[in-house]
Design a protein that fits this description.
By secondary structure, the protein is of the alpha+beta class. The chain has 13 helices and 26 strands. The strands form 6 sheets. Strands 1-5-6-4-2-3 form a 6-stranded mixed sheet, with helices on one face. Strands 13, 14, 15, 16 and 17 form a 5-stranded antiparallel sheet that branches. Strands 18, 19, 20, 21 and 22 form a 5-stranded antiparallel sheet that branches. Helix 8 packs across helix 9. It binds 2-acetamido-2-deoxy-beta-D-glucopyranose (3 copies) and zinc ion (2 copies). The site of one 2-acetamido-2-deoxy-beta-D-glucopyranose has 7 residues, from helix 8.
Length: 510
């Protein structure tokens, strides 16, 4: 009966919501504001003629690696709404052309540095710079933040003639600070809460980098925004670097997760060396991204936890994924580690992901156990892994696109009323038939079907009573499949003992 109800309700409004698929994007009406904020349109003349807007859209599309159509199509609006750096893109095009020119004509750096054209980015006229962390983000302790920032500066000093020193007090050249909303550098620089503009910085010699305090900053988890990556990018601006149109460049304006490629592209290195020369030691040093991921995890784990020391990491910060196996054991994933919490609330120590599932990447974005086939499914980037116990099934990892599933999903869970796997991504959800490994017809659909469930959930668990718990950061939402809506919500670390984060000792069965 429940199943029928769900199917009927889901079918009734298929037609209603087919058109609302891309609501995670910007409203076309807000696009001009966006183009003004990021320097594609002049803010002064507030009415722009159609030609100017088209040309601005084309420039934006070019820098963002979208098809250059000049139209505000859905991909363009979607891109405009994705997390990025708050610094304007204006000028980055010209700066890039000059860089490319110098690479091809082989002009010496000395010559370039003396050239008379005005560099919008400016530069410091010294190689030794000092910095200071003015205040701190929530949910991360000072030790790991300090290490992350030190590494972010090292990234640049390892490939250039620069040297950095941290000072805890007094005047420094560069200052990093966390602010919320408007913070005394103009309304156009006001922070916008989670997502959107994550941080911004000023070109030399102002030396300020500001981070949106409302973001969920993290170092090792795949959910939230990585503070090391964002500081490394913002530090680039404080040194005089503009945005890069090179897709894999650290100075590209959009937020990217740490991938397999080296963090600094040839374009980042060329840009910083044109301003400050090569490292005095000679060779350029870059460490592999995989090693950076491990290092960040170690910084977090080495730190004395804030608050209740009996609680593991995932209870104080965000986690990447959560699921429950056939025995009612909850599994929580974060970075390269996972924890288990048995149905008797017995919580394990952190275990390396690769020890149980050796072929998985460093971390995963979504995980789900399916009672239908008794298998674990993992999602990360463009791929899906399927395990029988600890053995990877033949044919996996599979490309998500082969299964009609999205890249970088928010979460995945087996949904008993449909008998299929459900995958959330942004404003839509997908339904994966585990037998055919293809999407069910009529999907993806809008998240509005899950009345009350927020966008960007990082995991979901079905409990024995059939209720579904969605998690996002410290909040949970309880969804009742019979009523097809959220019937309760709150802070999961305080209320849901079975997540292993209750402040009672693990021997108390709740
Ligand atoms: C910078 O170089 C040093 C010395 O070679 C190395 O130990 C360090 O890991 C490098 N740091 C980064 C961020 O690449
Ligand atoms: C459930 O527990 C049994 C016995 O401890 C174990 O053999 C089995 O692998 C567990 N099942 C799952 C899905 O973890
Ligand atoms: C909890 O797990 C540990 C190790 O897996 C085991 O030694 C202990 O007996 C368990 N405690 C309870 C109450 O099940
Ligand atoms: Zn930037
Ligand atoms: Zn600011």
């Amino acid at each position: 009966m429940d199943l029928q109800l769900v199917l009927v309700l889901l079918t009734v409004d298929i037609l209603l919501s087919l058109s609302e698929a891309v609501s995670a994007s910007l409203n076309p009406g807000d696009a001009e504001g966006f183009l003004e904020k990021y320097g594609y349109l002049h803010q002064k003349d507030h009415t722009h003629n159609a030609d100017k807007v088209t040309s601005a859209v084309r420039q934006f599309q070019w820098l963002s690696h979208l098809p250059v159509t000049g139209r505000l199509d859905s991909t363009t609006l979607l891109k405009m709404a994705s997390p990025r750096c708050g610094v304007k893109d204006r000028g980055s095009n010209e700066a890039w052309k000059r860089r490319v020119n110098s690479v091809f004509t082989g002009q010496s750096q000395q010559h370039l540095r003396k050239k008379r054209y005005t560099r919008p980015g400016g530069r410091w006229y010294k190689q030794h710079l000092t910095y200071q962390i003015v205040n701190w983000p929530r949910h991360l302790s000072q030790g790991p933040v300090r290490l992350a920032v030190r590494m972010a500066f090292q990234l640049w000093s390892n490939v250039s003639g620069l040297v950095f020193h941290e000072l805890n007090e007094g005047q420094t050249d560069i200052r990093l600070a966390f602010y919320e909303g408007e913070h005394n550098d103009g309304t156009s620089n006001a922070f916008d809460g989670p997502g959107g503009a994550l941080a911004h910085a000023f070109f030399p010699c102002r030396g300020e980098a500001h981070f949106d305090k409302a973001e969920r900053w993290t170092l090792s988890s795949h959910k939230g925004h990585n503070l090391f990556l964002v500081s490394a990018h913002e530090i680039g601006h404080t040194l005089g670097l503009e945005h890069s149109p090179v897709r894999h460049a650290l100075m590209s304006p959009y937020y990217k997760k740490l991938g397999r490629s080296l963090l600094l592209s040839w374009d980042d290195i060329t840009a910083v060396q044109q301003l400050y020369g090569k490292p005095s030691a000679g060779a350029v040093v870059q460490i592999p991204s995989q090693d950076l991921s491990w290092a960040m995890q170690d910084w977090e784990l080495s730190e004395e936890p804030m608050g209740d020391i009996s609680l593991p990491h995932y209870c104080r910060n965000t986690f990447d994924a959560i699921t429950m196996d056939g025995n009612g054991t909850v599994l929580v994933f974060r970075g390269g580690l996972f924890w288990t919490v048995t149905s008797e609330s017995n919580r394990s120590d952190p275990l390396p992901l690769k020890r149980r599932w050796p072929q998985l990447p460093f971390a995963i974005e979504a995980a789900a156990f399916s009672p239908l086939d008794g298998k674990f499914y993992f999602f990360n980037g463009k791929h899906i892994w399927r395990y029988s116990g600890t053995v990877l099934d033949p044919g996996f990892p599979k490309k998500s696109s082969e299964c009609d599933m999205p890249r970088h999903p928010d979460c995945a869970f087996f949904y008993a009323p449909l008998g299929h796997m459900v995958v959330f991504k942004g404003s839509r959800y997908f339904v994966l038939n585990l037998e055919t490994l293809r999407s069910e017809p009529y999907y993806p659909r809008g998240l509005a079907d899950w009345k009350g469930v927020p966008r960007g959930a990082n995991g979901a668990v079905t409990r024995a009573d059939g209720k579904l718990y969605f998690f996002r950061e410290q909040q949970y939402w309880r969804f009742d499949p019979r009523k097809l809506r959220v019937t309760g919500s709150g802070q999961w670390t305080k209320k849901l003992a079975w997540t292993g984060c209750h402040r009672t000792s693990s021997n108390d069965v709740l």
